[in-house]
Amino acid sequence: MPNTTGSNNANKVTAGKPKVGGAVYRAPLGTVLPTDAVTALAEDYKCLGYCSQDGLTNGNDQTNNKVSAWGGDVVLNMITSGSDTFSLTLIEALNENVIKTVYGSDSVTTSESGDITVAVNGGSNEESVYVFELILKGGALKRIVVPCASVTSLGEVKYTDSDAVGYNITLTAVNDKSGNSHYEYIHLKKASES
Question: CATH number of the domain at 15-61+75-189, please?
Fold first, then answer.
């Protein structure tokens, strides 16, 4: 039952776990975007596999310009710039789609036998569609759809015998024609869906 009294409601507190079977997907720019949290993704969306236990971080940085009147009162607050970023560590280092995400599709070739060759050349600004699939408290589903983003930061890649090789990346979203950098869809599980 919805909480309409305005009081606290612990049932609305949640955590975000990765969807079983895959939580991070990438598709070529221009691929048809999902518009809800439940419709199956098209074949063009390639799963990027497991991510580190740090999960997904969405950074929303805004810069404001505050205009003050004589006497010091702030009379106008204007957003002058902002960025929408997503940071995560991809740990399927042998996944061809992960390597293409990190270094660019044109920098990765796969032979008929499955061997992968990567031509590392300082990074890629290849723009793609990204989808993040989450399961929330009570079986609710959340889908984050980023119509256009590229890898704008790549952390150190460490090769040790005590941890998984991972690619710590930051994706920076670009606004679509409607001026939006990403969309979020939440499907609350109904009693009939048990």
Answer: 2.30.110
